[in-house]
Amino acid sequence: MKSLIKVSYIFLASVMVGCTDLKEEILDETLNKDLITSSEAAESVTAAAYARLRSTFTHNAKVFGLQEITTDEAICPTRGTDWDDNGLYRELHTHSWTANNGAIRNTWNELNQGVAKSMIAIKTMQDMEGNFDQKIAETTVLKAFYMMHLLDLYGQVPTRDVETLKFNEDPLVLKGEEAVQYIEEDLLSTIDHLGTKEEVGSSRITKEVAQALLSRLYLNIAVYTDPYAPSYKFKSEDLTKVIQHSTEVINSSSYQLETADYFSIFDTDNHGHSEMIFAVDQRLEYNLGDNRFAVVSLARSQKPTPTRRGWNGYATLPEFVDTWDVTDPRFSKVNFAQEEGTLAPELYELNRGFMSGQQYGPVLNEDQSDFEKDTSGQLIITALMNDRDGLPTDFTKEVKLFDNQSSGIRVAKYQFDINGSSNSRGQVDIPLIRLGDVYLMRAEAKFRNNDVSGALSDINTLRTARGAKPLTSLTEEALFNERGFELYWEMQRRTDMIRFGKFEDKWTEKSSSDPNKRVFPLPQTALDANLNLVQNQGY
């Protein structure tokens, strides 16, 4: 087992730097079927493939950064000397990135490592004695999941023949229809071998995960096969498949829409939530869980505990806020009034959703050991002030790329984990696929397939569950907006904007209308290492 792990990491390191000249005998040792003969080993190599989800999908500057900062949902201003990061976030927001952008490079590496770990796990289990069909099926879908993100973000998918896994050769590169068919075959071939949520949980691949991914793939086929098209033509047969697979997920008894509290989907105890189809499990290795999505937007003066504070980074944009009916329960959840007064310590919890205007909360006492309290032990709630400039923590609707400490409405969708081992550690499972999205995919497929009444019914089923007012009619614009209301800050916005033809629109501090930006450039390190890769057009 140690030999396998050692050489596997040698290979995975090669993926990060793009090296392809490992010696054949080392890699043969990795795949020697005599090295591993137990079900525990199968569990171990499968877990390694799953583990890559955590670093790839819980970091604010990887998939989240590419899918959100490039859109009208998020911006990361440079505040004084904070959040400059050599212009990384400004490049993403203004669509002026190059092949040397760190977030683009790191995300490419992470996703390819996910593919590599999945392939190693599949090949290892295929060479073992015993029946590992379910785990092989799980890992095959996981490989497809990583590949779908490569296709979505970069338009190209490096792959190898799992049967041989010749690591000393440049991988084959799939694009367009060929990549779609490869991923589709992986997903379709596994469905009959996958378990249920009751059997494996919401952080492992199930039949419904594969079906939801097929729905997502078919919904985006027009984009993936011709990403630079002036407009996308959605084929009826593809839309019918979206409806078919999403209906099977919706009809499953394993999942139900949240009706009591939308924000509970993103709470620290959300593991196994009834709406969660597939999520990054941050519970099992508690101190490795990431709290970034909760901490990245809060001001430094907003303190969930005396020893925890926000990072004062990301904000949302006025254009996105203006699409909202602020009475929609998904917009905000008030846990304590934003006014001066007192509050019992056990009732103190940060508000959720969109935060605007002057912020209130407890402040530290004189010796910085605890929150200030009155003589009866109640927290003293007061107007917060920024520690950088001494000005009020007053979140403005308007925001710029170079701005002050309080600019921009903030987003607190994910609960801040006050029990994490540090400010950036937490145990909120990060949803990758959930039932609300499946309803929206089916509604969009029905709408594009000329079943507007059926689409409206799905939209209103979701809105009613959330406590929002039902719609009386449905347009493409309303459909697009509904995806924003339901899925904001869930790493979907860029993909949605491209599919709805809005990615070239103008919004705050972004005027680029270059269609080449619909896909990211391949990192220069990847091009240098693999001659089968060709840079995407426009770079």
Topology:
Elements: H1 2-17, H2 24-30, H3 39-57, H4 63-69, E1 78-79, H5 88-94, H6 102-126, H7 133-154, E2 156-159, E3 172-175, H8 176-190, H9 197-200, H10 207-219, H11 221-225, H12 236-250, E4 276-280, H13 292-295, H14 318-321, E5 332-333, E6 341-343, E7 352-355, E8 357-358, E9 360-361, E10 379-383, E11 394-395, E12 402-403, E13 410-412, E14 430-434, H15 435-448, H16 452-466, H17 476-487, H18 493-499, H19 524-529
Largest sheet: 3 strands, antiparallel
- Tell me which CATH architecture of the largest domain applies here: Alpha Horseshoe
Distance between the termini: 43 Å
| Overall form | globular
CATH topology of the largest domain: Serine Threonine Protein Phosphatase 5, Tetratricopeptide repeat
The total count of helices amounts to: 19
Compute the number of structural domains.
3
What's the pLDDT, averaged over the residues?
A: 92
Widest sheet: strand order? 5-7-13
Based on CA atoms alone, the radius of gyration comes out at 24 Å
Strand content: 5-15%
Low-confidence stretches: 1-32
CATH class of the largest domain: Mainly Alpha
Protein name: RagB/SusD family nutrient uptake outer membrane protein
Domain RagB/SusD: 314-539
Organism: Flammeovirga aprica JL-4
Family: Belongs to the SusD family.
